[in-house]
Fold each of these.
Amino acid sequence: MNINANTASILKEIEQKYEAINQKTDTQLEGLLWSKPTTYWDYIQTDALLNLQIQRTVLPDEMVFILYHQTNELIFKMILWEMNQISHAENNDTVFFTERLLRISRYFDMLTNSFSIMENGMDVGQYMKFRNTLTPASGFQSAQYRLIEFCATDLVNLIDNRFRKAFDNTISNEKAFDMLYWQAAGKDYHTGKKTYTLEVFEKKYKATFLDYMEEYKSINIWQKYKQLPVLDQELPALKDAMRHFDYTVNITWVMQHLNVAIKYIDQSGMGDGEATGGSDWRKYMHPKYQKRIFFPELWSEAELANWGQE
């Protein structure tokens, strides 16, 4: 049998690949002989994906709500994938950093623009009925979104605004965890009592959160930015990319989310609508209250003072 040079070269590389892990090349090739061809639906796992939407009611627009939030979680996974590449890059190259940061921003831009699906794609009457079956679940229970925040910035910038100025970076992660801004969505700070929504969220994810808080102290996006050459940090394109990411996540996306919540939750316009998890959703969501800012050093004093006021 005649084997052309290209095929011979590929077979040689295959042999080297399996020799490196002490595997027999003949065994691997025989496995390839009996393996079935890949199809789109097997590779993407289409059937599995399309069977993950389980409604709790018979109301049609609940399917829109479920699919939209599942799509968000998939995009969050894409964002974390890119953030982890930046954080764990052995050589912190400015080009690589900027390209991955722009990918992340595009994902958040897409999330921001997608809110019109929620805002205009559900019947308010249907939503107000099926939302009662969701209690006490709450959107603030998105663990991936919390991981994105830990990957983005120093911990102090995620501390509740009431405690941020006095925050001491030497305190334990355990104590800092109780001071995170989103705790306000599930805790009465007068009594210290946590809602059931917050309690079960912590029970499931707290260990993971504490691990991320520790791991990303020195490798979050801000720290990796500061590790770039000083001259590169001042490149207009890079600073604009950092500011765009910060503004999009902490103002644009949040405000779009808030506006949708106002439409569906606060129908009276009196601010008395209650979230499914029982949180003070206006003060939790509106950026002017918590002033969530990933990279405060990249904004002017006036911009910081007026954060979320536009």
Amino acid sequence: MTSSDWTESTLVRDGVRLSCRDWGGSGPDALLLHGLAGHSGEWDAVARLLREAGHRVVALDQRGHGRSERHPADVSRAAYVADVVAVVEELGLVRPLLVGQSLGGHTALLTAAAHPRLPRALVLVEAGPGPGDPGLGDLIGDWLRAWPVPFPSREAAVAYLGNGKRAVGEGWADGLEERDGGFWPRFEVDVMVRSLDENGRRAFWGEWAAVRCPALAVLGEGAQGGIIGGDEYAEMVRIQAGLHGMSVPGAGHDVHLERPEVLSGAILGFAGPPDVSAPCAGVHSSS
């Protein structure tokens, strides 16, 4: 994908620069949120497919990531949510479909809980409300610090970051910047670790119970690196009995990179053409 497929939109909220890939389209609107240490370009394949299906699509570089502000002082969950609201308002999105992977899915979930009339539907890709893990920040921090940066070439980055999965490596490598003779991350590790503080301290079951719009959970396989276990998913269904769910065989945590066609088809089949004049009310029955 090239920048000719999309335009960059930039806004500033409370002094924090936020960058978006605006794919255009005549709408209904969809807002895509990447995971921790990721970037908006991870959604390129999905964004194009959704646009071709008739959606207006925007992908956000969340604070601390990509082309957005790299050193935000506030990396609370509330700050991430407020950014989503600001993007929706600034870009004139009307009751967008919120799609998020990993931490981006968590942001989408919290946005839907705090602002129930904002989204028309919610798609959680390898994301859920719990449980809290006190060691999560240290684990992710150790992994990020172990990256052999700068990578000497893009191909070296693809090989390392993909860990045997070419599509995953390509997606992660696309988020690097080339400078000083190497390829470097577009984030600071300490910012990433701090962004996980609240997730390490607690679960978010109350927020999940507060979601009032239709919701779809898309899971990878645990053996391939999926992170949503059976107990967590079962509790999600117990609290939101109308939750739609599907797993993608052979895909791991980065479903959006490994199987973008499958994910896009699932999103389109789930969301359908909305009536944007109607409020978001209730969760669809399971199918």
Amino acid sequence: MILEKYKFNYFFNLNINKAIIIFLHGFMGNINEFDEAIKLLAEDFSYLILDLPGHGETEVVGGDEYYVMETTAQAIINLLDELKIDKCHLIGYSMGGRLGLYLTLNFPERFIKVVLESASPGLATKAERLERVRRDAQIARKLSRSIIQTDFAAFLSNWYNQPIFGYIKNHPEYDRMVESRLQNNPHELDKSLRFMGTGCQPSLWEKLQLNTIPMLLLVGEYDQKFISINTEMAKICDFFQIKIISNTGHNIHFENTLTFVENIKSFLFAAI
């Protein structure tokens, strides 16, 4: 479906009379990011999954400004309109969680409850944002130089050595996850990182206190950086509740799908 400057690759499964969840994947993910979780949720919910700009088979047919958070968020709202989805739940992981938080704070009338997995409101100060932009530009250059798949595979191996990912490389399905990541185009990922990375996005810290949508903040036990960020978020707004998931790092839904789904069900089914 072409909307404005986007040709979205998406799949909408409508389960009559069941609430809809939109899933937003993380950086280097794709439409299949939440497949295992969706298998456990599909009986109770309708769902919308898509490739975000710079990922999978979604095409940006405009300029670089169409990779940024503000235009991407508006495009997703346009997609919801096109599919006649008035209100839905939202689940976002990492980059998709940052985008999900932006959507919720700017279009609160469209969302019922929101689950943010290993997400953040961005960086609070201009100095922090500039430093992050500089670092992300270095990473983006490495991606752009991934001419052959072995280069990209080496990049991914290095990426998952980051402390936030804990012991993800020990997971029995780690190689399968990497294979899925390799389906992306490194040059498109380069654009996503440079234009929707944490340093580029608008800081959402000052808007958190205005939030009125119930949000569950999920963070992994081994992801100390995001435990700290999400603990601060929960102090700012009473509509946030934080849950630390044992024996996981940044990618909770991959490392412990069952616990991830149990937390989602209990949160979404709880009375508001």
